[in-house]
Specification:
Two copies of one chain form a homodimer. Chain A is built from 14 helices and ten strands. By secondary structure, the first copy, chain A, is of the alpha/beta class. In chain A, α11 packs across α12.
Chain lengths: ~325, ~325
């Protein structure tokens, strides 16, 4: 089997470095949703923690290592969730955190980054511009740049979700993972490949932000000129080569979904699970909605990965029925 | 110290009889909500499981014992959540479940009880009439009647929430518990009394359904002629003497809240935690809203105990902002 940068031994070992508030998230069957979709639906819920996304698993590892190495500062680019998580983890261990984000990011994400005590710098462009600016700050100020999905801790943190899925004892045939930079997809995918190779690993990305999916299909880095999706958490345009290589090993498929399917998925998670989630968290349900036959009668696990959404946008998209 | 029918040793031992899907629920700080309320808010989330309420903890114990004892049937009265949980637990172990409920119970609760394979009988009256009818069925058919809060397993199951709160390692000064029949309040209260006596145990009930609170205050069973609250899960009128006796030992206070505070609490849980909850689950937040001074600067744990609510009612109460 081809290797990746990840392995389960390291992922298991990493777990002790993560605050338990991020671990052991619920994994439960949602029968009403399954009945609508014609398959079993297991929700792995990553929103019931202090930062309302899975990103804390990774930032706990990052910050632990930086502090152990005597670092006092860190900078990252963030679509909004990584920044919150890094701010939370940094605050707890006395690390100064700078977050660079697009000024078009959801207000709730920007407000929370500030409220958690990080320095927030906004760029007048998209996430890729924020990445450039964060790298420049790191070079200029000589501080550590955290790069989501490239830095192994971000993948290993996310991979602990995979360990929990496997250890739950609840069988599932497929796992649907939101695909952005690739930390969660490669992390969970690695665990499935090693511990549950019979589980199909499917990455899901919006049609409006397809760079990593196209790259996976063409087996080379493909960038896009723009990204146009409500799923702000996965709206990257420049895939990272090392992450793509890992993804090519661990993912069984990568699919693209329409915006209206994402909205329909958000609506179903509200109706049947009482969860108000951000668009990226509904990508898995969207994938089922777009290809019911593929999933019919199977047990599908989907990671509800974030809940940071501006309510006015949410209700404009979803309505309230 | 006065004794109750409960003890932590038994509660600890009970845990092995509960499906893990109901255990280890999230307990996390919600800082945006805390900032609004002027206190630390820790949410113990009991809605991310197959029945979207805490009741599965107790029904797992009940059904385990009944099956071990060779029983094949059980009947209960339910406001809607106990019935779902009993149906879920019974289905898994081949026990026939009959649920008696008010025909005025939320549609989603009645639909889910049916979908889980239980026999559902509706009464044209409130929960107290359902209790009478369930008792009659048990007598007539010679099958076991499960009585919420009176049957120790229901209290012990709920009490495992208290164990998890204490074991979380996250300090808190106060725990706010929705008060209905009293299983959750006596169960969690018992754990606090034994393991964390410094924690203030406050029960919260709607002003429109105050029977148990009045009973606690007068130290004798007080019934009411009617109950009028949107918090259908706690709308009993006839407190059980044995449960009241336990509650008198373990509760530090019992408070009543207005309907508009319950609605405001539901709205805050949506805005700041992305959770659509049923009214009973917002009683704790309602109590803080009604007496901010009492909780100012303290660390408050509140059990978000159920999420089964009809969405049309929900949005009629709460709006979507």
């Amino acid at each position: 089997m081809a290797t990746t940068r990840l392995d389960v031994g390291r992922i298991r070992a990493a777990r002790v470095g993560i605050d338990p508030v991020f671990l052991g998230s619920p994994f439960f069957g949602c029968e009403p949703l399954g009945a609508r979709l014609g398959c079993g639906v297991g929700i792995k819920l990553e929103t019931a923690n202090p930062v309302r996304s899975f990103k804390g698993r990774g930032t706990e590892l990052v910050v632990g290592q930086l502090v152990a190495g005597g670092q006092r500062d860190v900078v990252c680019a963030s679509a909004g969730n990584l920044g919150q998580a890094l701010a939370w983890s940094g605050r707890g261990r006395g690390l100064e955190v700078t977050v660079v984000a697009s000024r078009f990011a959801p207000r709730v994400k920007l407000e929370r980054i500030r409220a958690l005590g990080a320095r927030l710098e906004l760029v007048d462009g998209d996430h890729e511009l924020a990445r450039e600016r964060a790298a420049a700050i790191a070079r200029y100020d000589g501080i550590r740049l955290l790069e989501d999905s490239l830095d192994l801790e971000t993948c290993e943190g996310a991979a602990t979700i995979g360990l929990e899925l496997v250890e739950s004892g609840t069988p599932f045939d497929v796992v649907l993972i939101a695909l952005g930079g690739g930390a969660m997809a490669t992390g969970i995918g690695q665990v499935m490949n090693e511990l549950a190779p019979e589980v199909e690993v499917i990455c899901v990305q919006p049609m409006g932000a397809p760079a990593m999916t196209r790259s996976w299909r063409e087996r080379r880095v493909v960038t896009t000129e723009s990204a146009d999706t409500i799923a702000d958490g996965v709206a990257g345009r420049f895939p990272i080569a090392e992450v793509l290589e890992d993804l090519l090993v661990v993912a069984d498929d990568a699919v693209l979904v329409r915006e209206e399917s994402i909205v329909a998925g958000m609506r179903l998670l509200m109706q049947d699970a009482g969860l108000i989630v951000e668009p990226s968290a509904a990508l898995g349900i969207a994938a089922v909605l777009e290809d019911r036959e593929r999933f019919a009668g199977r047990q599908v696990a989907t990671v509800v990965c974030g809940g940071n959404v501006d309510l006015d946008s949410y209700y404009r998209w979803v309505g309230n029925k």
